[in-house]
Design brief:
The chain has 251 residues and is α/β, with parallel strands linked by helices. The protein contains eight helices and six strands, in the order ααβαβαβαααβββα. 33% of the residues lie in helices and 9% in strands. It binds iron/sulfur cluster. Iron/sulfur cluster (SF4) binds next to helix 7.
């Protein structure tokens, strides 16, 4: 595992605008994932890239896909301190197997002391907990990058159904691109990819976890539910704040 080097670039204003995202989506309309993703990476069409990975149920597909093109691309993992032990073991296994350039991101100690001393904020304010354990550490790390690669898929939930392959990250005003290589993959294609490349499954998948986040906020999925229905069950919350629900496509 590597450490995040000191961020040596200043925020110089928006890097990309909506027009750039539209142009890139149009450029690759009809292209297969490997073809357009390879072009984006090898032709440096989106600047400095980082993968944001939870090392969850289907993360191995994106990590393998990208590592086959360039395994040096940084993989940002949010070490919230609340993961299942199985996730941490799986993270280490995939890192080794794909020779990933993994960077673990931690919440600020001061933030934890001030806002979550008991470690139970998830139980009464999950938005606040995600803010200090996920959103802030990621925001800080992403300043060093022009675009992030996510593993979001349209079939996972209604809030992801209309996302484009490439969009502007609306979480800040820096004009960063958010790239969703698997957005048009369905469950069968993901399963076929795992089989074709003999990728290991997250150990909790066989116990009924279709989407895996922090342990206090994840339960097994029941038959007929959205794959993400087991995340923050009982709360009016569908995303951790890294991705905004209802983001509109610009195609
Ligand atoms: S998913 Fe749960 S435990 Fe993890 S950061 Fe968010 S609220 Fe906290």
């Amino acid at each position: 595992m590597n450490e995040l080097r000191a961020i040596d670039r200043l925020d110089t204003g928006p890097r990309y605008c909506e027009h750039d995202a539209v142009r890139l989506n149009r450029m690759f309309r009809g292209s297969d994932t490997d073809e357009w993703l390879r072009a984006v990476i090898e032709d440096n069409l989106a600047g400095d890239l980082a993968i944001v990975s939870s090392f969850g149920a289907e993360s191995a597909a994106l990590l393998h896909l990208v590592s086959q093109i360039d395994h040096r691309i940084p993989v940002l993992f949010l070490e919230t301190g609340k993961h299942f032990s199985e996730t941490l073991a799986y993270r280490d296994e995939l890192t080794e197997r794909f020779s990933l350039n993994r960077i673990d991101l931690y919440p600020e100690l001061e933030d934890l002391q001030l806002r979550d001393e008991s470690g139970l904020r998830w139980s009464y304010d999950p938005d606040g907990c995600c803010e200090l354990r996920k959103v802030k550490p990621l925001e800080k790390a992403l300043i060093a990058f022009d675009a992030s690669l996510t593993g979001r898929k349209a079939f996972q939930s209604s809030t992801r159904a209309n996302l484009p392959r490439i969009e502007i990250d609306t979480s800040d005003a820096q004009g960063r691109l958010k790239i969703n290589p698997l957005i048009d993959w369905d469950a069968d294609r993901i399963a076929a990819y795992f089989e074709e490349h003999e990728l290991p499954r997250h150990p909790l998948v066989e116990r009924g976890y279709a989407s895996i986040g922090c342990s206090p906020c994840t339960r097994e999925t029941r038959p007929g539910e959205d794959p993400r229905a087991g995340r923050w069950a009982g709360w009016d919350k569908v995303e951790c704040g890294i991705h905004q629900p209802g983001e509109e496509p610009f195609l």
